[in-house]
Amino acid sequence: MTPLAQSLSSSKQEQIFPLENGDRLTRPEFERRYHAMPHQKKAELIEGVVYLPSPLRFEPHAEPHGNLMTWLGLYKAMTPGVRMGDNPTVRLDLDNEPQPDAVLLIDALAGGQCQLGEDGYLEGAPELVAEVAASTAAYDSYDKKVVYRRNGVQKYIVWQVLDQKLDWFSLQGGKYVPLQQTRQM
Prior knowledge:
alpha+beta, tt1808, chain A, three-stranded mixed sheet
């Protein structure tokens, strides 16, 4: 092979394509592409499919998200051994790497089921996952719910802001059971 052909061949091998909505990828390929896109603030792999979020509006997402974090922060402050995260990457299994709006986890030293990997990412199911769902209500309420249940997330909250609905599920016997359904005031 000529030096020019080798150069062209190696440049093709090194090219990393950007993530696109709907891409079907393995978790390692998803991570490789995500790390090559430092401008991308959020991307999720749900059942092997890439989801890129739309821009966030203040009232349907940012403000409720702030309220959710305040509430969970107060709970964390009053509950020893609990850790809280805002938009962490969570490695659940080979096809799922969501970035939920909020998580609570019991510290591993206190018997929690989620671990902090050597590279700083969460591995395994946090005890609680919460999503603020405006533009993401469809997959937060269905695809992600299935993934979180299957991977052992004990409590799952979906706040459907536009519908003024809060769904709170508890994992019991391998199934999500609704704890409460309320309308916001």
